[in-house]
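Project outcomes to date are best conveyed with an example. Our students and postdoctoral researchers have been running inverse folding experiments weekly, and each run begins with a structure described purely in C-alpha cells. The record below, which covers 405 residues, was selected by the lab manager from last quarter's runs and is presented without edits.
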C-alpha cells in the first residue's frame, strides 16, 4: 500500500492535472498583482507652406514633434482599491485551487486504496479458487477410482465431474478479475504503457478496529469532516473569491481616470510655430450608456450559486459520513462473525464429511454440498473482508481524516 501511494502521488494523472490548475491560479494572482505598464507615445511631422529660412531668429523648424505619457489608470486604481480587489479575487481563487488539489488527493487516495484492496482481494480469491480446484480434482479422482471399482454409480461420477468443472469456471473468472483489477490499479498509478508486471502482498491485513473509531459515532465523525474536509474549505475560499468579484464589479462602475502628460515642440524661441509646451491632464470614459450592470448581475448570480453549492456540499458531507459509517459497521459485524466461528465450522464440516465418505458413512451429495458450502463461505469471507477495508477507506474519504489504516 505504501509503495502504491508513493507512486500514485508521483505519477497519478489526476493529481498532475490538479497541480496544473494550481499553477494556472498562481499565474492569475501574478497577473492581478502586476502594475499596468505606462503608455508612452510620440510622433513627428512636416509642415507645408512654411519657410523657416525667413525666421529672423533662425531657430524655426518645419518639423514638429511630440511625446506623451499615460499611467493608464494605475494611480486611480490604487486610490479607489480596484487593484486590491483584483488581488483578493485571485488570492481566494488560488486558495480554492490549492484546497481543490488537496480534495482531489483525498478522493483519489481513497479510490486508490479501494482499488488496491480489490486487487489484493482478487489475488486472494484466485488463490482460494485454485485450492478449491485442487480439492475438487482429488474428490473427482477418488470418485473415478470408486466408479471403476463398481462402488459408486455413473450419476455420482457425473456429479463429481460437474463440481470439478464448476470450480474450473471459478478459477477462470477469478483470473480475469485479477487481470482487470491490476489494469485499473496500474492506471491509477500513472502507468503510461502496457500494464507492468508487479506483485502484491499475499493477503489483506487483519481487521483491527482503528483507535480513532473506538468511541466514534456519526455526530463526532461529521464534526471531524466539517473541520478537515478540504472541499468544504475550498467552498469557503470560492465564496470569498465570489464576494470579492462582486465588490470589484460594483467598483468598476467608477470609470478609470488616466493621468496623462505631453510635450510638443516645432522650432524654438518666440517665432516658433509651436514653442516647447508641456501639458498635463486627465482622461476617462463617460458612463452615459452603460454602468457595468451585466457584470454586477453575473457576479451576484455567481455568489448566489456559491452559497447554494456550499449548502449542498455540507448536506453531501453529512450523507457521506452516514453512509460510510453504516457500511463500516455492517462489514465489521460480518467479518467478526465469520472469524469467530463460521469459517472454522465450514472447514470442519467439509473435512468431516470427506472423512465419513471415505469410510462409507456419508453420501457423495453430502460431500459436494459440504464443499460448496466451504467454497461459498470462504468467498463470502473474502468479499466481507474487502468490504471492511473499502468501508474504512470510504470513512476516511468522508471525514478527510486518516484513521490509522
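After processing, the design step wrote out the following sequence:
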Amino acid at each position: 500500500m505504501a509503495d502504491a501511494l508513493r507512486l500514485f502521488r508521483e505519477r497519478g494523472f489526476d493529481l498532475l492535472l490538479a497541480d496544473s490548475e494550481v499553477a494556472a491560479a498562481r499565474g492569475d494572482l501574478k497577473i492581478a498583482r502586476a502594475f499596468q505598464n505606462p503608455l508612452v507615445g510620440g510622433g513627428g511631422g512636416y509642415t507645408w507652406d512654411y519657410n523657416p529660412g525667413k525666421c529672423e531668429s533662425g531657430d524655426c523648424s518645419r518639423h514638429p514633434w511630440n511625446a506623451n505619457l499615460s499611467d493608464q489608470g494605475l494611480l486611480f486604481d490604487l486610490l479607489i482599491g480596484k487593484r486590491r480587489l483584483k488581488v483578493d479575487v485571485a488570492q481566494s481563487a488560488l486558495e480554492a485551487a490549492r484546497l481543490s488539489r488537496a480534495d482531489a488527493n483525498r478522493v483519489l487516495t481513497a479510490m486508490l486504496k479501494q482499488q488496491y484492496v480489490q486487487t489484493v482481494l482478487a489475488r486472494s480469491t484466485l488463490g482460494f479458487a485454485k485450492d478449491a480446484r485442487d480439492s475438487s480434482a482429488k474428490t473427482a479422482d477418488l470418485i473415478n477410482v470408486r466408479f471403476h471399482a463398481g462402488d459408486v454409480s455413473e450419476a455420482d461420477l457425473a456429479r463429481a465431474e460437474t463440481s470439478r468443472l464448476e470450480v474450473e469456471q471459478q478459477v477462470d473468472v477469478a483470473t480475469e478479475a485479477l487481470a482487470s483489477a491490476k489494469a485499473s490499479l496500474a492506471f491509477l498509478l500513472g502507468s503510461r504503457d502496457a500494464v507492468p508486471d508487479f506483485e502484491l502482498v499475499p493477503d489483506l491485513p487483519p481487521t483491527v478496529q482503528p483507535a480513532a473509531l473506538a468511541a466514534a459515532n456519526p455526530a463526532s465523525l461529521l464534526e471531524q469532516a466539517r473541520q478537515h474536509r478540504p472541499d468544504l474549505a475550498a467552498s469557503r475560499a470560492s465564496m470569498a473569491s465570489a464576494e470579492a468579484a462582486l465588490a470589484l464589479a460594483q467598483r468598476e462602475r467608477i470609470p478609470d481616470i488616466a493621468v496623462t502628460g505631453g510635450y510638443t515642440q516645432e522650432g524654438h524661441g518666440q517665432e516658433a510655430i509651436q514653442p516647447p509646451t508641456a501639458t498635463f491632464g486627465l482622461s476617462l470614459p463617460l458612463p452615459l450608456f452603460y454602468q457595468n450592470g451585466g457584470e454586477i448581475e453575473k457576479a451576484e448570480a455567481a455568489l448566489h450559486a456559491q452559497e447554494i453549492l456550499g449548502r449542498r456540499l455540507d448536506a453531501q458531507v453529512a450523507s457521506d459520513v452516514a453512509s460510510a459509517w453504516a457500511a463500516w459497521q455492517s462489514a465489521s459485524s460480518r467479518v467478526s462473525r465469520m472469524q469467530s466461528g463460521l469459517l472454522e465450522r465450514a472447514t470442519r464440516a467439509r473435512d468431516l464429511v470427506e472423512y465419513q465418505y471415505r469410510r462409507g458413512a456419508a453420501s457423495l451429495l453430502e460431500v459436494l454440498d459440504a464443499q460448496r458450502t466451504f467454497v461459498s463461505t470462504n468467498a463470502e469471507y473474502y468479499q466481507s473482508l474487502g468490504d471492511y477495508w473499502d468501508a474504512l477507506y470510504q470513512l476516511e474519504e468522508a471525514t478527510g481524516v486518516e484513521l490509522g489504516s
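The chain has two domains: 2-36+81-253+293-399, 41-70+259-290. Residues 2-36+81-253+293-399 form a domain with the Outer membrane efflux proteins (OEP) fold (CATH 1.20.1600.10). The training component of this project remains on track.
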